[in-house]
Design goal:
The structure is a single chain. By secondary structure, the chain is α+β, with helices and mostly antiparallel strands. The chain contains nine helices and 14 strands. It has a seven-stranded antiparallel sheet. A five-stranded mixed sheet has the order 10-9-8-11-12. Strands 13-14 form a two-stranded antiparallel ribbon. A hairpin with a 5-residue loop joins β8 and β9. The two termini are 29 Å apart.
């Protein structure tokens, strides 16, 4: 699995100006090549030698690859639109890069200590630019082994380096299985085979924050302040991602503390149709990324040497884990005729442990 490590950069004033110029040139080149491809309705045989840009050869080649990818997506969208009825067809606009970005492949940059080095054009020659990077212990631990491409972006005047890393599985001598139930009121409930349970996240706080952002965006919409609406949306997304990172880290730490070798999660396809929620929570259900939280749990588990498996969530919140009878819970309270009582989401996590896996196997089989 490939993960992305984000690093804050601290360029000096002149370095910042140079980076900004490199990004502008990269975006211009990609958009120009895409425009040429669209005009010719085909990939043209471009190389670093026959495209004009104030960029090193390796960066030119990367721009060509990006342009090919963008053009391929455009052609696919046009082809899909052509299959629709005339009244359903929409004009497919040519995609263009707008946000500041530039990419180097893994053979054209280096990270030594806290110094990131990569080639740029200075004057008329290709020279290496060395910029100070802020690295935490967590980032240093992840930047070991084979590194992938380097992407530098700019947002709110700050430069961020994004380095792709191939995550390698760590050895794990643990032997227990843990189930994880994802939801809105409680983002993640975990249960081990021994019945040890823990609840992670604050669903009430999450809903409050999301309602607050929606309310502000609604007011901004009436004032037609589109830039402010996008800014508010980005702020909400950053907050949601941060919550998912924190919850996934807590889930994996709990697994490590309890000698868990396998974490089992619900199959994510159709979760919005099968998730248990009330009508008032419907907006939150369709804007909360269960997939992202599951992905964060998966890649953090991989780094910890813990395997992740996906199971069919059918009846996990209804099946009694003692006698097997199906019962519907009353809000969060689950009660079976055999006398068994528990929290509904805890029941889901317990049943996920022995639920049928996507490949048809199960713990009890």
């Amino acid at each position: 699995m490939q993960i992305t490590v984000k690093i804050k950069l601290q360029p000096k004033k002149e370095q910042s100006k140079l980076l900004k110029a490199v990004m502008s040139e990269y975006i211009r080149l990609v958009n120009q090549i895409v425009s040429d491809f669209v005009s010719a309705n085909a990939h043209l045989k471009y190389s670093s030698k026959n495209v004009a840009a104030n960029l090193p050869s390796a960066v030119k080649n990367q721009a060509i690859r990006d342009a090919k990818s963008i053009f391929a997506k455009f052609k696919k969208a046009v082809k899909a639109s052509a299959k629709l009825k005339p009244e359903e067809q929409k004009e497919i606009k040519v995609p263009t890069l707008k946000k500041p970005v530039v990419i180097w492949n893994n053979q054209n940059y280096s990270l030594k200590g806290n110094v990131l080095s990569f080639p740029v054009i200075m004057g008329s020659k290709s020279q290496r630019l060395e910029i100070e990077a802020i690295l935490t212990n967590y980032q240093q631990e992840r930047l070991i082994g084979k590194l992938g491409s380097l992407r530098i972006t700019q947002k709110s005047g700050k430069y961020i380096a994004q380095i792709a890393v191939e995550a390698t599985e760590q050895p794990n001598k643990a032997d227990k299985i843990m189930g994880v139930d994802l939801g809105l009121k409680v983002p993640a409930v975990v249960a081990t085979e021994s019945g040890k349970t823990k609840f992670f996240g604050n669903g009430i706080q999450n809903k409050f924050i999301k309602r607050k952002h929606r309310s502000v965006r609604r007011k901004l919409g009436k004032l037609k302040k589109l830039a402010a609406i996008r800014k508010r949306h980005d702020k909400e997304q950053r907050w949601m991602k941060d919550q998912d990172h924190k919850i996934s880290r807590q889930v994996v730490n709990f697994a490590k503390e309890n000698n868990v070798a396998i974490i089992r999660l619900e199959q994510l396809s159709g979760i919005r149709q099968t998730a248990r929620t009330s009508r008032k929570n419907e907006k939150n259900l369709h804007t909360w990324s269960f997939y992202r939280l599951a992905q964060y749990i998966e890649y953090k588990s991989l780094l910890a040497g813990i395997k992740v498996e996906y199971v069919n969530p059918k009846y996990t919140s209804q099946k009694c884990s003692v006698c097997g009878e199906l019962n519907k819970a009353n809000d969060r309270k689950y009660k079976c005729g055999c006398g068994y009582k528990t929290h509904r989401d805890r029941l889901g996590a317990i049943n996920i442990i022995s639920a049928t896996m996507i490949d048809g196997n199960s713990l009890s089989a």
